[in-house]
Amino acid sequence: MTHNLGSGTGHSVLQVIAAMEEASGKKIPHTITSRRPGDLATVIANPAKAKAELGWETKRTLQDMCSSAWNFQSQNPYGYDGPPLGSRAKAAIESWREKRAANARPSGGFSAADHLDNLKQRVGARRPAPQT
Q1: Which residues contact residue 110 at a Cβ distance below 8 angstroms, ignoring those fewer than 6 apart?
Q2: DSSP string for residues in 92-130
Q3: Rounded alpha-carbon distances, angstroms, from residue 20 to 27, 32, 60, 66
Q4: Alpha helix locations (H) across 2-111?
Q5: Residues 6+ apart with CB under 8 A from 57
Q6: Do 21 and 67 touch, CB atoms closer than 8 A?
Q7: What residues contact residue 97 under an 8 Å CB cut-off, 6+ apart?
Q8: Tens-binned pLDDT, residue by residue, of the chain (132 aa)
């Protein structure tokens, strides 16, 4: 089952830029050029099927969406994955790779103990999720 989720009202690229500038408080550099070959003039979702079958309709504005997106990104600059691994975690991973290479069997397989050691190192290398 596929449904278009939208307001049924389109927004121009310039409107989206303006909404993101307002949400972020930052100027977004952009250049106005001609449309590229294949670009559509307008694309607007028709939400009628979603409303009829699911009782769903938009409640938020473009500004609400941009503010929400900026708020999430500001609080989670690395997205859902958390910050990149630090040097200690990188060293632990490299150590595991060296151990794995040293313990490799002629067939290229690894023992259950190798997999358990790998799991312990991977779990130990993870950083706790940021507190909100």
Answers
A1: 100, 103, 104, 118
A2: HHHHHHHHHHHH--TTS---HHHHHHHHHHHHHHPPPPP
A3: 9, 17, 15, 5
A4: 13-24, 48-54, 62-75, 87-103
A5: 47, 50, 51
A6: no
A7: none
A8: 888 888 899 999 999 999 999 999 999 999 999 989 998 888 888 899 999 999 999 999 999 999 999 999 998 887 877 777 777 777 777 887 788 777 765 555 556 666 667 666 766 655 555 565
Angle at CA of residue 33, ends 32 and 34, nearest 5°:
135
Residues 88, 99: Cα–Cα separation, whole Å: 16
Q: Please give the Cα distance from 3 to 50 (Å, whole number).
A: 5
Give the tokens for residue 87: 């040097």
Contact status, residue 125 vs residue 107, Cβ threshold 8 Å = no
User: In this structure, which amino acid lies at residue 42?
Assistant: T
Just give the CATH number of 13-75.
3.90.25.10
